[in-house]
Amino acid sequence: MQERDTNVKGSFETKQRINSIDALRGFDMIWILGLQGIFAGLFTLTSWPLFSVLSTQMEHSQWHGVTAYDVIFPLFIFLSGMSIGLSAKPLNSYPKAKRQQLINKAIKRLIVLCLLGVIYNHGWGQGIPMNLDEVRFASVLARIGIAGFVATLVVWYCRPSYQYYVLFGLLLGYLLLLALANIGQYGAGDYSAEGALNVWFDQVLLPGATYRGALVDPEGILSNLGSITNALAGVFIGRFFINRYRANQPYLQSLIAMGLFALVLGYGLSFIQPINKTLWTTPFALVTIGYSCLLFVLFHLMFDFDKWQKLSLSLRVIGMNAIVVYLASALVDWQYVSQSLFGGVIGASAPSSQALLSVIALVAVQWWGLYFLYKRNIFIKL
C-alpha cells in the first residue's frame, strides 16, 4: 500500500496504510468466516421478513443473476488490482537489477497461489489423490493469482493509454466470444451449464476434476477473461484515486460516477447477455466492478478519515491476513472449536437465539485467532 505524502493537506494521518483498503478486504472476508449465517439466525430470533430476504442474499445465484454473496470474490480481485494500481509502475522505470527480481516474484506468487488452491481443494480428509484426474486444479486462489499476474504484466509492459484498451478489449471481446463463437455444439449464444462455450474449454483443456463434477467449473479456463477485467478495473481505480489523493484534487464524485456507470452498463448489457458468475460474463464483471467501486468510496469515507477507527481495526485484523482467513476456512474445523468453547452456553440459551449465537461464536473464535497474529505483526502475504 502507498503511504500518504506529508505535504498533502487533508484529514488523513500521514505515513500510514490506506485503512479503507484493508478494512474493505476484511469486510469482504468476514463473510467467509461464517457471518453469512447471521441473517438466518436473526430471522429465527425475530421472524422479521427483512432478515429472510437478506439471508437469501447470502447464497450464490443458482445460475443467472447476482446476489450479495456473488460479489465477495470479484470484490477481492478488484481490491488486489487496487493494490497493484497504488504501487506498481512500468517495469522499465525500475533499476535493471530490480526488474528480474520483480518478475521472479510475480511468477512465484502465481505458482504458490495455484498450489495453495490445490491444497484448499484436496488437502484434507483423505489427502491429495494419487490419481491426478481426481485433483481439482482450478481454484479461487488460482483465479486470484492469474488475474493479479495478468494485471501486473499489463501495468509493467503497456503504456497507460494502452492499458485501457486492454480492459475495453477484454470486456467487449469476451462478450462477443460467448455470444458469437462456437466449437461444435458449444457456444454461439448458449449460456446454459451444458452448452456454453466455457464447457468445451473445461471438458477438453482443463486438467483434473471440475467442481462437484460439473461440466463447467466456476473457476474454469475461459472465464478468467472476465475476472481479469475486475483486477484491471481495480488497477485503474487505485491509480486514479492515489494520483488525485496525492495532488489534493477532487476524486469522490468521479469514483461514484465510475461505479454507477459500470452498474448501469452491466445491467443494461444483461438484456443482451445474462449476468452469470460461473461464466463470469461481461455484464457480471461490470456489475461487480460497479459495486466494488462504490463500496470502496463508502469505506474510504468511513475509515480513511479520523472516524470509526475501532470498527476499522476489527475489519483490518481480518483483511491484513486474507490468505490465512481463506485457507483456514477449509483446513480448520472452526465449528468444532467454537462448539467446544461455547457449546454449553449456546445450548443453555433460548432455542430461538441459538442459531444467532452459534454464528457469533464461530466468527469470534476465528477473529481472536487473527487478532493474535495482528498483535504480533504476523502477516502472511504473497
What characteristics describe this protein?
15 helices, mainly alpha, 2 strands, 382 residues, two-stranded antiparallel ribbon, single chain, disordered N terminus
| First-to-last CA distance | 14 Å
Number of helices: 15
Find the count of extended strands (DSSP E, 2+ residues).
2
- Oligomeric grouping of the chains: single chain
Major β-sheet profile: 2 strands, antiparallel
The helix fraction, in percent, is 55-70%
Average pLDDT taken over every residue:
90
The ordered H/E elements are HHHHHHHEEHHHHHHHH
The secondary-structure class comes to mainly alpha
Task: Quote the beta fraction.
Answer: under 5%
Order of strands across the main sheet: 1-2
Give the low-pLDDT segments.
1-15
**Structural shape:** globular
Spatial extent as radius of gyration: 21 Å
Q: How would you characterize the overall build of this protein?
A:
Strands 1-2 form a two-stranded antiparallel sheet. The protein starts with 18 loop residues before the first helix and ends in a 7-residue tail after the last helix. By secondary structure, it is mostly helical. The N terminus is likely disordered. The relative contact order is 0.15. The chain has 15 helices and two strands. Helix 1 crosses helix 11, helix 4 crosses helix 11 and helix 7 runs antiparallel to helix 9.
